[in-house]
Predict the structure.
Amino acid sequence: MAAPKKSRGPAGGQGRPGRSLVLILIAMVALTGGMFLAGQPTPRLGIDLAGGTSITLEAKSEPGQESAINKTNMDTAVQIMERRVNGLGVSEAEVQTQGDRNIIVNIPKGTNSAQAREQVGTTAKLYFRPVLTVAQGTPTPTPSTSSSGKPSPSASPSASASGDGKASATPSASASTQGRAVTDGLKADVTPSPKASGSATTTPEPSASASSGAEEAAAAKLQKQFAALDCSSKASRAEAARGAKPTDTVVACSSEGDAKYVLGPAEVSGTEVDNAKAGFDQQRGMWIVNMEFTKKGSKEFQTITKKLSAQQSPQNQFAIALDGEVVSAPQVQSTLSGSAEISGSFTQQSAEDLANVLSYGALPLSFKEQSVTTVTAALGGEQLQAGLIAGAIGLALVVIYLVAYYRGLAFIALLSLLASGILTYTIMSLLGPAIGFALNLPAVCGAIVAIGITADSFIVYFERIRDEIRDGRTLRPAVQRAWPRARRTILVSDFVSFLAAAVLFVVTVGKVQGFAFTLGLTTLLDVVVVFLFTKPVMTLMARTKFFSSGNPWSGLDPKRLGAKPPLRRSRRVNAPTDPKEA
């Protein structure tokens, strides 16, 4: 007895196309809802479309250090600048070298663009200097000293010491926060510089050895300059920082302008900072800044902290001075070396800002703002309009071709293009706040090219179906049998396109990466749309009378396609050999 034949579904069949359609429709609704909930109903625009600022910076070296301007240092400067502006959330900020001594920084128009320009323009000459005295940032007409003749530090109303003698690690921190520095297994309190009250100010005490008239005149001049310094004015802060040499005793303002300092000669240069990172300490529940020194810097830092730990406040503080402004002035109570941890009442932003300053100061270069060019939003709008017109023309040509050649099948292709467009638009909008993606003109070009790639996948599938109909099969079996062959071709084609986009993204920089990213994204979405939308819709349409009957306007008319008649096996009848049977 012959074994019963097992029934098999159609090759490449899809029993329930509705499930795939429901799945992709849910994804579209979820992405659209997320787009509006995120408050980003449109994609972010890059500098060439939305407008922004382009800054040209020229590298400057110290006298006798012309060799510092080299490819390695310039590339390092580009990486640090890019990290700083991207850390501020500036979308599509572009930093790249031009020639052998210029850096171009393109900052799109946005809420943080001004702050990014200010930080990039900071030339980052960083020094660690001992604090000699500190006072309130406003001018002090009458310097005062303690009864012992030594400078008496003044306490800040916003950062006074707590009951246990510890204070916060940032100049603007609250008084009750405790801070520590941990280095090489040693623990020491690290607190910010106290700030002056309005009633008490201090002045530097001339050294006992300063007996010559020149030294006395210099000390008097410094004392007068310190008393007259008004740190609430940006112009005054810049003037105080101008021309300061590492070997000089100088006056300086805090970066916030609410305190002023007399600082001794630099003990450690920012070039000796090997690494600085902000992080969150889970055990203490606070933000900290970790910094590591080079071998030379470690020895220098150990020497200065050994001296400072034996002093009284404020002489036990070291100031982190960036271009003459004090960004932080923690206290030291133990000898530190190698690496250090600065902790206190940091927020995430203040910790990251300090880590960026420390990292940026590790460059032996300064930069001068050579030129600033502003791209208006009007010009960007014209470019965007031109790109959209080009996309519309390309889409119209694709539609005309599909309707003229595929007739009814063009309806399925247009629905698929619409689905692909919705997915692309919503994902680009969501990627703006998620990863800082900004749509620039090359990215628009990538989206336009993707129209042809997506349409090509539909054409491959439609032609496979037509081939099956030409072989004499009816539409429903033809749709199922054509899918496995079309699927392989589509996957190979999209893989090649995605590979090209990935290579282009890796090996290029700047705006070309926008083109590569958009091309890769739309290629992936093409696979999703063809598998979860085009194939299920084609399966459902094959069940309708319009398509299954081979309507001339369906694009699947067997006569127009030159279909062969179906092959049928005929039964052979043998001639009778018996005359009686004839």
